[in-house]
Amino acid sequence: MSEKNKIKIPEYLTFATIDFNNQSLESALTSAGYQKGKRTLFIWEGVCMYLEAQSVRDTLSFIQQSSTSDSLLAFDCVVSFSDKDGHKYHDAKEMLQFMKDKHKNEPFTFSIDGKNIADFLGEFGHKIVRHLNQDQIETTYLKKADGSSIGKPNGLFNMIITSPEV
């Protein structure tokens, strides 16, 4: 049980810690009891935008190579965009500036071209099950009962669920 929140953690749920830029995902998960070839839900939120590109590639490759076709990877990512397209991404430039000003020691080091997300993930054997951009996040999760919007999410982030093509 999580003492802080009084939440009962299911016995089948395992948390594994890792420094993606300095450890292999395989060794971290194996140490935590992970068994290759079993259906798995990988939750990778708030991580990949802080990693080096090679760490992202290694993670995507490992998940594809060690998982079953009914496993899922749920993650968020930062999308890259050109200056001429920046206006299409709600508050994205402001978020980037905020991160530079207020979180100098936590820079975004990885992003995916917003126009080629499926192609990028396909290079590592992942097919998109669900992809939510800023408009879809708003429509799906940020609507009041009367249909009005609670607010616009930052356009810099996308939410993605993939399944490895095994």
Question: What does this protein structure show overall?
Answer:
- With 166 residues, the chain is of the alpha/beta class.
- The longest helix has 14 residues, at 53-66.
- It is 28% helix and 18% strand.
- It has a single domain (25-164), classed as Rossmann fold.
- The N and C termini lie far apart (35 Å).
- It has helices at residues 25-31, 53-66, 92-102, 117-122, 134-141; strands at residues 41-44, 72-80, 112-113, 126-132, 157-164.
Oligomer: single chain
CATH second-level architecture:
3-Layer(aba) Sandwich
Q: Which structural class fits the helix and strand makeup?
A: alpha/beta
Head-to-tail CA distance between termini: 35 Å
The CATH topology is: Rossmann fold
Low-confidence spans? none
Largest sheet: 5 strands, mixed
Number of separate domains: 1
What is the percent of helical residues?
A: 25-40%
CATH level 4 superfamily = Vaccinia Virus protein VP39
What does the secondary structure layout of this molecule look like, with pairings?
Blueprint: H1 25-31, E1 41-44, H2 53-66, E2 72-80, H3 92-102, E3 112-113, H4 117-122, E4 126-132, H5 134-141, E5 157-164
Parallel strand pairs: 1-2, 2-3
Antiparallel strand pairs: 2-5, 4-5
